[in-house]
Amino acid sequence: STTVGKSTKPSLTNLKIGPHLDNGWEVDQAIINEPEKLVIIRFGHDWDPQCMIMDEVMLKAAPKLRNFVVMYLVDITKVPDFNTMYELYDPMTLMFFYRNKHMMIDLGTGNNNKINWPLKDKQELIDVCEVIYKGARKGKGLVVAPKDYSTKYKY
User: Fold this and answer.
1) What distances in angstroms separate CA 78 from CA 40, 44, 45, 68, 144, one per listed residue?
2) Of 25, 125, 123, residue with least CA distance to 81
3) Predicted model pTM
4) Using the 8-state DSSP alphabet, how is residue 80 labeled?
5) How far apart are CA 114 and CA 104, in angstroms?
6) In terms of DSSP H, where are the helices of the chain?
């Protein structure tokens, strides 16, 4: 049978990686209850251009990451619980957790807690995830990014 008129374009939701977490409890459970995989949470708004770019990168990287990463999306207006604690003041924030521990990554930017700009392509996200996952499995709470982002922003 054919699916005439139905979009076959993959989405984060139908890949089963990247559903929206709709409240603080769901966010906590996603972080606490994942025993093996790296948990990535994209905080922001679906309509924000930076989030749209990052979501597309996450979607493209998902098939290569699915064995060791699980991804979620959180709307920071609908779920404001973490905005102060994680300083979620940017349009788009990517955070990483492993076995209920916040994973930090030294990007050369001075902020090791999160990535607050959209990564440009799927390989960049895959490389970052691999470095964090490998470090996390060795018990490291802070890993060094595979690329130095200190010159990313030219003011």
Assistant:
1) 18, 10, 9, 28, 32
2) 25
3) 0.86
4) G
5) 7
6) 24-32, 49-65, 122-137
